[in-house]
Amino acid sequence: MRLSRSFIPTLKETPAEAQIASHRLMLRAGLVRQTSAGIYAWLPLGFRVLKNIERIVREEQDAAGAQELLMPTIQPAELWRESGRYDDYGEEMLRITDRREREMLYGPTNEEMITDLFRQSVRSYREMPQILYHIQWKFRDEMRPRFGVMRGREFLMKDAYSFDMDYAGAVVSYRKMMLAYMRTFQRLGLKAIPMEAESGPIGGDLSHEFIILAPTGESQVYFDAAFEQIDYLPRGGGGFSHDNADDLHRFFTQMTTHYAATDEKHDLAAWEKVAPEHRREGRGIEVGHIFHFGTKYSKSMNCTVAAPDGAKVHPEMGSYGIGVSRLVGAVIEASHDDSGIIWPDSVAPFKAVIINLRRGDAVCDAMCEALYARLGNTALYDDRDERAGGKFADADLMGHPWQIIVGPRGAAAGKVELKRRATGERTEVTPEEALGRL
Ligand code: 5CA
Predict the structure, then answer these.
(1) What predicted TM-score, i.e. pTM, was given to this entire model?
(2) What are the counts of helices (DSSP H) followed by strands (DSSP E) for the chain?
(3) Which residue from 136, 132, 138, 119 is spatially nearest to 161, judged by alpha carbons?
(4) Pairing of the two strands 379-382 and 352-356
(5) Which domains does the chain have, with CATH numbers?
(6) Quick check: 182 and 232 in contact, CB under 8 A?
(7) Contact residues for 200 (Cβ-Cβ < 8 A; gap 6+)
(8) Residue ranges lining ligand 1, Cβ < 6 Å
(9) pLDDT tens per residue, range 78-99
(10) Which of 154, 289, 293, 296 to probe ligand 1 with, by most ligand atoms within 8 A of CB?
(11) How far is C-alpha 64 from the chain's CA centre?
């Protein structure tokens, strides 16, 4: 994309309403704009990041054997009356009446709807187990929407639902999803820690939150530094496989042996057993939450599957959420400096920005155009008629992993400057070498 033709409305001033770095930077770099309290429009730069995160989440769900579908945002109230959650959900639920006076709602989550779809179609143990997921907008009329996309009212969630014949099967599904989560967060450049959690309005007896550290996090968290050493994506094989029960057991044992807890579940006696140099504590942001809730919905909604002996069994269920839009903010919280965002390569809206320091100079223009032709839509070309300082500041603010800086002196000698945003390291190279490095 040519910056001169793009819709990336950056701001020079720091918006007064933004209290935390990610919110400030998302507004300043032109990623989002608020359209109502807690509701945001995703502008081209922000939308590219959202799509990249969504793609990684999807790839890891698919790799774990979950199947993608898409359920609607608007749901009938009857389904929620069946489960008993229509009244329980309270003011957070946006209730809507259609022209025929039918009660509808904008879905805050989808346990009821997936259970309904499942009970209509699956009859036999032969079709089990199943894990289904979608990536869809949710609405929760949060009392205090804040911190930008971090706690919005409308937000994008990946929610998966597992159906198993028995508890042992449900535990395998739960572990598979947990592994998919750790792989997902590592690919996003995040160190997320699974912490035992309360299951709240979703219900159930087994639940983990996935927390990343950030000074502006909403809860205080404590964990063993051993988590920082675990590699969920080892190159050249090894690691844990989703399809191997021993691997899943070994994985889950690691996740639950090392100490990790939010303040709600913090256990001082257990904490004191962690070696002092291994104790990590700070504020945490919840980027995912998984639940095993057994037959809570399959029973209340009369969903049954025939077992081999013909008996009708209520499937054991779990649900698994990732805050896709929240992750855009969370990645920025984890990776920024005073000048702006520092995108991990995996989610960056553009791999690189080509900065033309002397627009109108034939050699600079030709070199930039040639680079841009090679990189295409994976690069942003800053072809604006602006002073160098402004271009550098915008490039740092937008946080592209690489900057290819083309100035008249270097260009005359067939060289560009390649800057790595994360380290600030600059090297003089030929355009060909620069392309090779990206
Ligand atoms: N049905 C379950 C799992 S599918 C569920 O709804 N879980 S949840 O309530 O914990 O939400 C899942 C994830 O969505 C959270 O971990 C969080 O990352 C994200 N999330 C929840 N509320 C918001 C919000 N108001 N704004 C942005 N993200 C949110």
Answers:
(1) 0.96
(2) 14, 23
(3) 132
(4) parallel
(5) 3-341 (3.30.930.10), 352-437 (3.40.50.800)
(6) yes
(7) none
(8) 109, 111, 140, 142, 151-152, 155, 157, 159, 202, 286-289, 319-321, 323, 325-326
(9) 999 999 999 999 999 999 999 9
(10) 289
(11) 17
- Which tokens in the block code for residue 269? 């006696």
Please state the atom number of ligand 1 nearest to the C-alpha of residue 160: 4
Cα 43 to middle of ligand 1, angstroms: 22
Residues 93, 175: Cα–Cα separation, whole Å: 30
Phi, psi of 312 (to 5 degrees): -90, 125
Task: Please report which confidence band the pLDDT of residue 250 belongs to, taking 50, 70 and 90 as the band edges.
Answer: very high
Summary mean pLDDT of the chain: 95
Compute, in angstroms, the gap from residue 202 CA to the centroid of ligand 1: 11
- In single-letter form, the type of residue at position 109 comes to T
Query: Residue with the nearest Cα to atom 16 of ligand 1?
Result: 288
| Strand order across the beta sheet in which 402-406 lies | 379-382, 352-356, 402-406, 416-420, 426-429
CB contact burial 227-244 (16+ within 10 A = b; e otherwise): beebebeeeeeeebebee
